[in-house]
Amino acid sequence: MSWQYGLQWVIHNSWLLTNLVTAAGFILVLVYLRKWLASVRSDFERLIESPSKIEEVKNEIINVTKEISSLTEVVNTLLGLVTGIRDEIPAAKELVTTGLREVKEAVGKTPKLDAENDAVQDHLYKVEPEIEQQNQPPLPCLVTDYLAYLGANEISTIPVMMDPGRGGKTLVRSDEGNYVVVSDGGSENQRLVPKLEWFSSTSTFSMYFSDQFECDEPQAGAILINQPALVRSNSDGGWEVIKKGSLAVK
Question: What span, in angstroms and rounded, lies between the C-alpha atoms of 63 and 56?
Answer without folding.
Answer: 11
